[in-house]
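User: Structure tokens for both sequences below?

Assistant:
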Amino acid sequence: MTALDTGTEDLRAEIDDGVAVITMNRPARRNAFSQAMVSALGTVLARVETDDAVGCVVLTGAGGAFCAGGDVKSMAAAPADHGDGAGPSLDARIHRQRLNQRATSGRLWGMPKPTIAAIGGPAAGAGLSLALACDLRYAVPGAVLTTAFAKVAFAGDYGGTWFLTRLVGSSKAKELYYFSERLSAEDACRLGIVNAIFAPADFEREVMERARRLAHGPSVAYRYMKENLNRAVSGELGECMDLEVTHHVHAGLTQDHREAAQAFVDKREPRFHGR
């Protein structure tokens, strides 16, 4: 296991047998965002995306919560921003958050490696958005998921409206945003937001078992699969089918494919090397 220096106590990261485990670490605030946390998250994700020792990324939270999103207590304590030039301009604030969103939820969605959200407790607001940005989501029975934005008169950020619409459809996504109702893990699983629910005692083992399986799988094929599947939710059919062919033929030329074919003939498990 290799610990990564994130530059802040608000975020922990380590590489364990090919899996990068990134932990949001503000348990006293249910892992609500801090500027240090979200900045470090973007930096760490950029690092593990290009690290050949990492085959899968798991995002989770410390202390029995996933992430509460924005720190509402800090927002309430901050002085009102009247746009009088005392702080960054509105355009500068928007641009800064755009960059961070692309570096965090955008990178979780787009990086050519499988990503997993391990939801060990509440996931709300932008915290839920980060979970939705991952390829797979696993939860414990007591986890609660909520968009939460309407409760604090926000419209929503970190891509949650886009991700949720593609998981549950436009009408259901609007209902979940407008009313900000709390979903149990079981309800989220029935809607297809959560892939599976594991008992707390088994949760870490079950998630890491799947993450390691992905980390040691055919990484070239996974890269192409993920791009195909991501484009399938936004691209035109013909364009997606053309891309599938290109990726399928390229994957057929890899050593991993030849190894898997031979392993099938030999009736054994294949040994993948990402080539």
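Moving on to the next sequence.
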Amino acid sequence: MGKLIYGAASTEFEVDDRTLAHVEMVALAKLRRNENFALTIESTSSGRTTLWLASQTDLLFVYSGPKPEINRVWLDKLVDSANTASGLQLLPE
């Protein structure tokens, strides 16, 4: 299980490594183009959290194991999600 660490306060969100690798690719691509967007993370323990990601946001992607192989079809679905008004939703693979 990896972690997405967000903001100067270092708020941590547990995300499985496979999902985290895909989120990282989407986030880096959008932020490289200075495209701000929302990311919604759902958890059984903390409910639903929506984060605003901008190029000024501190982000840290921490993996518990080797970086998984990327599924291009799933990545494309996540990119499409990130480009909507509601932002990136962690859709199932």
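User: Anything stand out in the second?

Assistant: Helices lie at 17-32, 72-82.
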